[in-house]
Protein backbone atom coordinates (compact mmCIF):
# COMPACT_ATOMS: atom_id res chain seq x y z
CA UNK A 1 0.00 0.00 0.00
CA UNK A 2 2.84 2.38 0.86
CA UNK A 3 4.66 1.71 -2.42
CA UNK A 4 1.96 3.13 -4.76
CA UNK A 5 1.60 6.22 -2.53
CA UNK A 6 5.34 6.95 -2.69
CA UNK A 7 5.29 6.30 -6.44
CA UNK A 8 2.50 8.84 -6.90
CA UNK A 9 4.35 11.36 -4.73
CA UNK A 10 7.46 11.04 -6.91
CA UNK A 11 5.38 11.45 -10.07
CA UNK A 12 3.72 14.50 -8.54
CA UNK A 13 7.10 15.99 -7.66
CA UNK A 14 8.22 15.59 -11.28
CA UNK A 15 5.12 17.26 -12.76
CA UNK A 16 5.18 19.89 -10.05
CA UNK A 17 8.78 20.67 -11.00
CA UNK A 18 7.75 21.53 -14.57
CA UNK A 19 4.89 23.72 -13.36
CA UNK A 20 7.10 25.45 -10.80
CA UNK A 21 9.88 26.29 -13.27
CA UNK A 22 7.37 27.92 -15.62
CA UNK A 23 5.37 29.56 -12.82
CA UNK A 24 8.53 31.26 -11.54
CA UNK A 25 8.72 33.19 -14.82
CA UNK A 26 5.12 34.38 -14.47
CA UNK A 27 5.88 35.40 -10.91
CA UNK A 28 9.00 37.42 -11.76
CA UNK A 29 7.40 39.43 -14.57
CA UNK A 30 4.25 40.13 -12.56
CA UNK A 31 6.30 41.07 -9.51
CA UNK A 32 8.16 43.77 -11.47
CA UNK A 33 5.66 45.01 -14.08
CA UNK A 34 2.35 43.79 -12.64
CA UNK A 35 2.02 42.18 -16.08
CA UNK A 36 0.79 38.65 -16.70
CA UNK A 37 2.99 37.50 -19.56
CA UNK A 38 0.63 35.07 -21.29
CA UNK A 39 3.29 34.33 -23.90
CA UNK A 40 5.42 32.64 -21.23
CA UNK A 41 4.07 29.15 -21.92
CA UNK A 42 5.05 29.54 -25.56
CA UNK A 43 8.52 30.68 -24.53
CA UNK A 44 8.72 27.32 -22.74
CA UNK A 45 7.84 25.70 -26.09
CA UNK A 46 10.48 27.75 -27.89
CA UNK A 47 13.02 26.67 -25.26
CA UNK A 48 12.23 23.02 -25.93
CA UNK A 49 12.74 23.53 -29.69
CA UNK A 50 15.96 25.46 -29.14
CA UNK A 51 17.21 22.59 -26.96
CA UNK A 52 16.25 20.16 -29.74
CA UNK A 53 18.27 21.97 -32.41
CA UNK A 54 21.25 22.59 -30.12
CA UNK A 55 21.33 18.95 -29.00
CA UNK A 56 20.91 17.65 -32.55
CA UNK A 57 23.74 19.88 -33.78
CA UNK A 58 26.22 18.74 -31.15
CA UNK A 59 25.23 15.08 -31.50
CA UNK A 60 25.11 14.82 -35.30
CA UNK A 61 27.43 17.55 -36.60
CA UNK A 62 30.06 17.60 -33.84
CA UNK A 63 29.67 14.04 -32.56
CA UNK A 64 29.93 14.84 -28.85
CA UNK A 65 28.85 12.28 -26.24
CA UNK A 66 25.51 12.75 -24.50
CA UNK A 67 26.89 14.08 -21.20
CA UNK A 68 28.95 16.73 -23.02
CA UNK A 69 25.91 17.74 -25.06
CA UNK A 70 23.92 18.30 -21.85
CA UNK A 71 26.72 20.43 -20.39
CA UNK A 72 26.63 22.66 -23.47
CA UNK A 73 22.89 22.44 -24.06
CA UNK A 74 21.80 23.79 -20.67
CA UNK A 75 23.54 27.22 -20.82
CA UNK A 76 22.96 27.66 -24.57
CA UNK A 77 19.26 26.84 -24.29
CA UNK A 78 18.82 29.18 -21.35
CA UNK A 79 20.74 31.99 -23.08
CA UNK A 80 18.93 31.70 -26.43
CA UNK A 81 15.51 31.40 -24.78
CA UNK A 82 16.33 34.46 -22.66
CA UNK A 83 17.14 36.28 -25.90
CA UNK A 84 13.67 35.42 -27.23
CA UNK A 85 12.07 36.71 -24.04
CA UNK A 86 14.06 39.95 -24.08
CA UNK A 87 13.19 40.45 -27.76
CA UNK A 88 9.50 40.17 -26.94
CA UNK A 89 9.91 42.71 -24.15
CA UNK A 90 11.83 45.11 -26.40
CA UNK A 91 9.55 44.85 -29.44
CA UNK A 92 6.11 44.28 -27.92
CA UNK A 93 5.96 45.41 -24.28
CA UNK A 94 8.39 48.31 -23.94
CA UNK A 95 6.76 50.62 -26.53
CA UNK A 96 3.40 50.20 -24.78
CA UNK A 97 4.95 50.76 -21.38
CA UNK A 98 6.68 53.96 -22.48
CA UNK A 99 3.46 55.30 -23.96
CA UNK A 100 1.64 54.61 -20.72
CA UNK A 101 -0.79 52.18 -22.34
CA UNK A 102 -3.42 50.60 -20.14
CA UNK A 103 -2.43 47.25 -18.67
CA UNK A 104 -5.24 45.55 -20.57
CA UNK A 105 -3.59 46.36 -23.91
CA UNK A 106 -0.32 44.89 -22.69
CA UNK A 107 -2.09 41.68 -21.68
CA UNK A 108 -3.75 41.46 -25.12
CA UNK A 109 -0.34 42.02 -26.70
CA UNK A 110 1.08 39.17 -24.61
CA UNK A 111 -1.67 36.86 -25.87
CA UNK A 112 -0.89 37.88 -29.46
CA UNK A 113 2.84 37.26 -28.91
CA UNK A 114 2.03 33.73 -27.76
CA UNK A 115 -0.04 33.11 -30.89
CA UNK A 116 2.77 34.51 -33.05
CA UNK A 117 5.29 32.13 -31.46
CA UNK A 118 2.97 29.14 -31.93
CA UNK A 119 1.97 29.86 -35.51
CA UNK A 120 5.44 31.12 -36.44
CA UNK A 121 6.83 27.76 -35.31
CA UNK A 122 4.11 26.00 -37.30
CA UNK A 123 4.89 28.04 -40.44
CA UNK A 124 8.67 27.62 -40.20
CA UNK A 125 8.98 24.02 -39.02
CA UNK A 126 5.69 22.47 -40.09
CA UNK A 127 3.08 20.56 -38.12
CA UNK A 128 5.13 17.37 -37.79
CA UNK A 129 6.18 16.51 -34.28
CA UNK A 130 9.88 16.35 -33.45
CA UNK A 131 11.50 13.53 -31.49
CA UNK A 132 14.02 14.86 -28.99
CA UNK A 133 17.32 12.92 -29.11
CA UNK A 134 18.34 10.69 -26.24
CA UNK A 135 21.14 12.44 -24.35
CA UNK A 136 21.42 10.14 -21.35
CA UNK A 137 20.48 6.53 -20.92
CA UNK A 138 17.49 6.17 -18.64
CA UNK A 139 18.23 4.14 -15.53
CA UNK A 140 15.34 2.82 -13.48
CA UNK A 141 16.01 2.32 -9.78
CA UNK A 142 13.61 -0.04 -8.03
CA UNK A 143 13.54 0.60 -4.30
CA UNK A 144 10.98 -1.34 -2.32
CA UNK A 145 8.61 -1.59 -5.27
CA UNK A 146 8.98 2.13 -6.10
CA UNK A 147 10.42 2.87 -9.56
CA UNK A 148 12.35 6.10 -9.98
CA UNK A 149 14.50 7.13 -12.94
CA UNK A 150 17.62 9.26 -13.04
CA UNK A 151 15.76 11.82 -15.19
CA UNK A 152 12.97 12.14 -12.63
CA UNK A 153 15.50 12.81 -9.88
CA UNK A 154 17.32 15.34 -12.09
CA UNK A 155 14.10 17.25 -12.88
CA UNK A 156 13.19 17.56 -9.19
CA UNK A 157 16.69 18.67 -8.22
CA UNK A 158 16.81 21.25 -11.02
CA UNK A 159 13.51 22.77 -9.85
CA UNK A 160 14.72 22.99 -6.26
CA UNK A 161 18.05 24.55 -7.28
CA UNK A 162 16.24 27.06 -9.54
CA UNK A 163 14.00 28.09 -6.66
CA UNK A 164 16.94 28.51 -4.26
CA UNK A 165 18.81 30.57 -6.85
CA UNK A 166 15.87 32.87 -7.63
CA UNK A 167 14.96 33.30 -3.97
CA UNK A 168 18.57 34.30 -3.28
CA UNK A 169 18.67 36.73 -6.20
CA UNK A 170 15.37 38.39 -5.32
CA UNK A 171 15.95 38.66 -1.57
CA UNK A 172 19.71 39.12 -1.19
CA UNK A 173 21.06 41.08 -4.16
CA UNK A 174 20.88 44.72 -5.21
CA UNK A 175 19.16 43.82 -8.45
CA UNK A 176 16.63 41.78 -6.51
CA UNK A 177 16.02 44.77 -4.25
CA UNK A 178 15.46 46.92 -7.35
CA UNK A 179 13.02 44.33 -8.72
CA UNK A 180 11.01 44.45 -5.51
CA UNK A 181 11.17 48.24 -5.34
CA UNK A 182 9.93 48.84 -8.89
CA UNK A 183 6.79 46.83 -8.18
CA UNK A 184 5.96 49.16 -5.29
CA UNK A 185 6.67 52.51 -6.94
CA UNK A 186 7.88 52.57 -10.53
CA UNK A 187 7.95 56.38 -10.57
CA UNK A 188 10.34 56.75 -7.63
CA UNK A 189 12.86 54.20 -8.93
CA UNK A 190 14.52 56.54 -11.53
CA UNK A 191 14.90 59.21 -8.83
CA UNK A 192 17.00 56.74 -6.84
CA UNK A 193 19.46 56.21 -9.71
CA UNK A 194 18.03 52.90 -10.88
CA UNK A 195 17.38 52.37 -14.60
CA UNK A 196 13.93 50.71 -14.83
CA UNK A 197 14.65 49.23 -18.28
CA UNK A 198 17.69 47.39 -16.91
CA UNK A 199 15.60 45.84 -14.16
CA UNK A 200 12.88 44.83 -16.62
CA UNK A 201 15.39 43.26 -19.04
CA UNK A 202 17.06 41.38 -16.18
CA UNK A 203 13.64 40.09 -15.09
CA UNK A 204 12.82 38.82 -18.58
CA UNK A 205 16.26 37.22 -18.84
CA UNK A 206 15.70 35.31 -15.59
CA UNK A 207 12.12 34.29 -16.31
CA UNK A 208 12.71 33.26 -19.92
CA UNK A 209 15.93 31.38 -19.21
CA UNK A 210 14.22 29.21 -16.62
CA UNK A 211 11.33 28.61 -19.04
CA UNK A 212 13.98 27.39 -21.49
CA UNK A 213 15.46 25.16 -18.79
CA UNK A 214 11.99 23.74 -18.13
CA UNK A 215 11.59 23.13 -21.88
CA UNK A 216 14.87 21.20 -21.99
CA UNK A 217 14.03 19.06 -18.96
CA UNK A 218 10.52 18.40 -20.26
CA UNK A 219 11.86 17.40 -23.69
CA UNK A 220 14.34 15.00 -22.11
CA UNK A 221 11.58 13.41 -20.03
CA UNK A 222 8.83 13.40 -22.67
CA UNK A 223 10.72 13.60 -25.99
CA UNK A 224 7.92 14.55 -28.39
CA UNK A 225 7.72 18.24 -29.36
CA UNK A 226 4.93 20.10 -31.14
CA UNK A 227 4.23 23.83 -31.68
CA UNK A 228 1.31 23.90 -29.23
CA UNK A 229 2.96 22.02 -26.39
CA UNK A 230 3.36 25.19 -24.32
CA UNK A 231 -0.25 26.34 -24.42
CA UNK A 232 -1.90 24.06 -21.86
CA UNK A 233 1.10 23.63 -19.58
CA UNK A 234 1.63 27.40 -19.66
CA UNK A 235 -1.95 28.09 -18.57
CA UNK A 236 -1.66 25.49 -15.82
CA UNK A 237 1.59 27.03 -14.59
CA UNK A 238 -0.11 30.44 -14.53
CA UNK A 239 -2.94 29.01 -12.43
CA UNK A 240 -0.36 27.43 -10.14
CA UNK A 241 1.34 30.83 -9.73
CA UNK A 242 -2.01 32.46 -8.88
CA UNK A 243 -2.90 29.78 -6.34
CA UNK A 244 0.53 30.08 -4.74
CA UNK A 245 0.32 33.87 -4.68
CA UNK A 246 1.17 35.72 -7.88
CA UNK A 247 4.26 37.84 -7.41
CA UNK A 248 5.74 35.58 -4.73
CA UNK A 249 8.67 33.32 -5.65
CA UNK A 250 7.82 30.95 -2.82
CA UNK A 251 4.18 31.02 -3.84
CA UNK A 252 4.96 30.14 -7.47
CA UNK A 253 7.20 27.29 -6.37
CA UNK A 254 4.64 25.92 -3.90
CA UNK A 255 1.74 26.40 -6.31
CA UNK A 256 3.46 24.40 -9.03
CA UNK A 257 4.01 21.46 -6.73
CA UNK A 258 0.49 21.75 -5.33
CA UNK A 259 -1.00 21.51 -8.82
CA UNK A 260 1.28 18.57 -9.62
CA UNK A 261 0.16 16.75 -6.47
CA UNK A 262 -3.52 17.42 -7.08
CA UNK A 263 -3.38 16.20 -10.69
CA UNK A 264 -1.46 13.01 -9.92
CA UNK A 265 -3.60 12.14 -6.90
CA UNK A 266 -6.80 12.69 -8.90
CA UNK A 267 -5.54 10.30 -11.60
CA UNK A 268 -4.61 7.78 -8.90
CA UNK A 269 -8.18 7.54 -7.60
CA UNK A 270 -10.38 8.66 -10.51
CA UNK A 271 -10.46 8.19 -14.31
CA UNK A 272 -7.86 10.36 -16.03
CA UNK A 273 -10.60 12.21 -17.94
CA UNK A 274 -11.63 13.81 -14.64
CA UNK A 275 -8.14 15.12 -13.92
CA UNK A 276 -8.51 18.74 -14.99
CA UNK A 277 -12.11 19.01 -13.77
CA UNK A 278 -11.38 17.87 -10.22
CA UNK A 279 -7.96 19.51 -10.00
CA UNK A 280 -9.19 22.95 -11.04
CA UNK A 281 -12.27 22.63 -8.83
CA UNK A 282 -10.00 22.06 -5.84
CA UNK A 283 -7.84 25.06 -6.82
CA UNK A 284 -10.97 27.18 -7.24
CA UNK A 285 -12.05 26.28 -3.70
CA UNK A 286 -8.61 27.30 -2.41
CA UNK A 287 -8.90 30.68 -4.14
CA UNK A 288 -12.42 31.13 -2.79
CA UNK A 289 -11.15 30.98 0.78
CA UNK A 290 -7.72 32.53 0.06
CA UNK A 291 -8.17 34.99 -2.84
CA UNK A 292 -4.58 36.24 -2.64
CA UNK A 293 -3.17 32.71 -2.93
CA UNK A 294 -1.28 30.69 -0.35
CA UNK A 295 1.65 33.11 -0.02
CA UNK A 296 0.10 36.22 -1.58
CA UNK A 297 -0.47 39.48 0.26
CA UNK A 298 -3.34 41.87 -0.37
CA UNK A 299 -2.16 45.05 -2.08
CA UNK A 300 -3.67 48.50 -1.94
CA UNK A 301 -3.41 50.86 -4.91
CA UNK A 302 -4.30 54.50 -5.16
CA UNK A 303 -6.54 55.39 -8.09
Automatic annotation (TrEMBL):
Record has Cytoplasm as a keyword: no
Domain of life: Bacteria
Membrane topology qualifier: Multi-pass membrane protein
Assigned keywords, A-Z: Amino-acid transport, Cell inner membrane, Cell membrane, Membrane, Transmembrane, Transmembrane helix, Transport
Cited Pfam families: BPD_transp_2
Molecular functions per Gene Ontology: L-isoleucine transmembrane transporter activity; L-leucine transmembrane transporter activity; L-phenylalanine transmembrane transporter activity; L-valine transmembrane transporter activity
Family annotation (CDD domains): TM_PBP1_LivH_like
Predominant place of localization: membrane
Subcellular location: Cell membrane
CC annotations in GO: plasma membrane
Transmembrane annotation, as ranges: 12-36, 43-61, 67-92, 104-127, 147-170, 199-222, 228-246, 253-271, 277-298
Entry's Gene Ontology BP terms: D-alanine transmembrane transport; L-alanine transport; L-isoleucine import across plasma membrane
Keyword Transport: yes
Family classification: Belongs to the binding-protein-dependent transport system permease family. LivHM subfamily.
Designated name of the protein: Branched-chain amino acid ABC transporter permease
Amino acid sequence: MLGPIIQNILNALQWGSFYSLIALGYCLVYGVLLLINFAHGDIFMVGAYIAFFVATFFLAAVGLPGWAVIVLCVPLTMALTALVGVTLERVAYRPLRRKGAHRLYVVITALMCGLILENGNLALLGASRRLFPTLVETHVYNIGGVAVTNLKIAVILVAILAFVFLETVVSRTKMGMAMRAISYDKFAIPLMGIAPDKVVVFTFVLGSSFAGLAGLMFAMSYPVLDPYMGALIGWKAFIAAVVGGIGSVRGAFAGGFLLGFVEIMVVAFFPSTYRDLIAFTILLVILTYKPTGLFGVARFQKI
